[in-house]
Amino acid sequence: MTLPLRPPFPPMEARRVDRIPEGGEWQFEPKWDGFRAIVFRDGDDVAIQSKAGQPLARYFPEIVDAFRALRAKQFVIDGEIVVPVGGRLSFDHLLQRIHPAESRVRKLAAETPAQYFAFDLLYAKGKLLTAQPIEKRRQQLEDFFDGVPKDSLLRLSPATTDRKVAGNWFNKFSGLGLDGVMAKTLGEPYHSGDRDGMVKVKHLKTADCVVGGFRYGEGTRTVGSLLLGLYDDQKRLVYIGHTSSIRKADRAALTKRLRALSGENPFQVRVPGGPSRWATERSGEWEPLRPELVCEVEYDYFSQGRFRHGSKFLRWRPDKKPRQCTMEQVMTGNDERGTMKDELRTIFK
Known about the structure:
Layout: E1 15-16, E2 26-32, E3 35-42, E4 45-50, H1 61-68, E5 74-82, E6 84-85, E7 88-89, H2 91-96, H3 102-111, E8 115-124, E9 127-128, H4 134-145, E10 154-156, H5 163-172, E11 178-185, E12 198-202, E13 205-216, E14 223-231, E15 237-243, H6 251-259, E16 287-299, E17 302-303, E18 306-307, E19 312-316, H7 342-345
Parallel strand pairs: 1-12, 8-10
Antiparallel strand pairs: 2-11, 3-4, 3-5, 5-8, 6-7, 8-9, 11-12, 13-14, 13-16, 14-15, 16-19, 17-18
């Protein structure tokens, strides 16, 4: 490539904050729940780079084709790859794309096409834009999208300087696939590889969960993670994920406590699985427990009946009975409720 920016190029990152910033010096954007992706086009060459610097183009051929279809022949764009299913984003369908078989990837691309939400323009019309302030880059990004066909898989991610609008995105549209809100400091250049000039506010939720098993830490005989469950409306214990944020100083005593509860597998739905392309053989080994302990955990996203990421252990809840730990906790106010406003739903059409 002859571009001044080439992969691997470290993307601008964000600091985590607890609330949407106040004041008039911010540009707010939705935080999409997908794969961060920087796209480099130089003629017919289109490269897509992940946040970690890995190539993604082979997994999203429809996105490559969409960029090749543009009149502009040289540019670098920062954005997010998402997969909308039924009017909301599905991270599970996104993960399925990371598959070694090209035929499988092509099949999924046809069945559930991905979309690309662009939120920054780094190079265009022969000019490197990274030193320009975000508001100037944003205007040029909007001008760039004037030339993108309306039926393209490429989308211009919304942006606003109105904190009330950003708060509305954050509070009402997590069900659509918004993972939170990004805030970029006006007047700032693109900070490649660092966290200056941008913050993120993510959705965080808590749930009281039943401990139905545990795994030993790798190479140890002390607990490494707790396996969690919730009861469904048929009173079945459903495996929903794990938490591994256990203090090192607590592990020995906790292991002894857990061993005393050794029993048969209590999970009746979605039993902790064995090896897959995402897991090692060892990750399938676990110790079942009688479902008597309850703990409170913090999580950021619940999808397809489980925590998408590992949750954070907060505290034990001896005051809660295991049967009180139901799926209703995670089915309210998140992506499972399926209610969205038309003004954001139309983005995915």
